[in-house]
Every structure is written in C-alpha cells, then in structure tokens.
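Comment thread on ticket #2218

A.B. wrote:
> Attaching the input chain for the structure job we discussed in standup.
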Amino acid sequence: MITARDWEDARLLWGFQRMGHEPRACSVGVGLGSHDLGVADVMAGLYRQGLVPLVVFTGATSPTTRERMPRGEAVHYRERAVELGVPGGAILVEPRARNTGENMRFSRELLAERGVAVDSVLLVSKPYEERRAYATARKVWPGVEFVCASVPMELPEYADSIGDPRLVLDMLVGAVQRLMVYPAHGFMVEMDVPGPVVAACERLRERGFTR
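C.D. wrote:
> Ran it. Output below, let me know if you need it in another format.
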C-alpha cells in the first residue's frame, strides 16, 4: 500500500529530478530507452517542432522492458516515432545499451561513426530521471551542452499512465540513490542532493520501495 506520506516524499524526489530546462534547438535528440514509450512521444513532438534534425533512440532490454518491448527499447521507440510522423531516415537506432552510461557512450560513438557534428543534445528521458541522465551525460560526453526534456506530467498522472505506481516509486528512489552513490564510482558528475531529498529517499527506502 502506498500511503499519503509516501506520495508526499515521492513528490519531493520527483520535483528534484526535474531539471526545469526549456527545450531549444540542438544538434541532435537522444531518447533514452526504458519501459516508457512516452519518451518516444516527447521526442517526436520535439522533432515536429523543428528542434532537432536527427534523433537517436538508444536501449536494448532490461528486466522491466523484456516483455513489453521484446525487439528492444530503441526499436520500439523508433516504431512509435515513425507512427507519430518522424521520417525513418531521421532516426538512428542504438540497440546495445543496457544502462545510462552506455546509452550516452554508444550514442556518441554512433554519431561519430556517421560523421555527425554534435555540440548540443536534447536529452529525453523519463521525468524522474532527468537529473540522473544529465549527470551521467556530463560525465560520459564532456564538452557538449545538454538540454533535458520529458513528458510534462505531475507524479500521480504519470504513475497512472504507467499502470504500476509502485514501480514508479521504486524507480524514483533508485534514480535519486544513484545521484548520491555513482559519482564516487566515476559514473556521473557530482550534483548536490539537498538534505530534505535525502531524508525523503531514505524514508521511502525504509518503507520497502527498493525493487
């Protein structure tokens, strides 16, 4: 059972993860694979607005996507974006990445192989992983400006759209924990995590949101 206090703590983590960037024109868009096809929807909208001339969808499969996206996250994202009007020729698929670091590294390598000059990236992720994605990208792909974007929903609406609120809270806790732990391992740049966010994350962890 998710209590009112759990939701209160989760909203604090949710707000912290959102970077608050204003989408703008960038060299390329990179959509990070996950269980959420909304990433592809957002990227398709940004492409139609003329903010990116080229899109990379990156992602293999994970325990949360194996059944939903058997052909791989990036492939399913591409199919969704094409359905929404993005030309297939404007989409590159990176099908190997299994974590955020690999998403960024393999996308960077793919674009270099194609001779695409990149000085800015419109980085699309799940809403509760904007800050984590940004911190990882800054570490793996230095010298590039990153602008974060995600579906413009509040937490309850988003959890309903996914159909598994507990999974969303589990993933939200994991995303914040990584911000606290991964910089020491060299996986992302250091970002300040305010005390109230740390406390809320710990309360949710103690309540069992660790899946």
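A.B. wrote:
> Thanks. Noting for the ticket: The CA atoms of residues 71 and 78 lie 11 Å apart.
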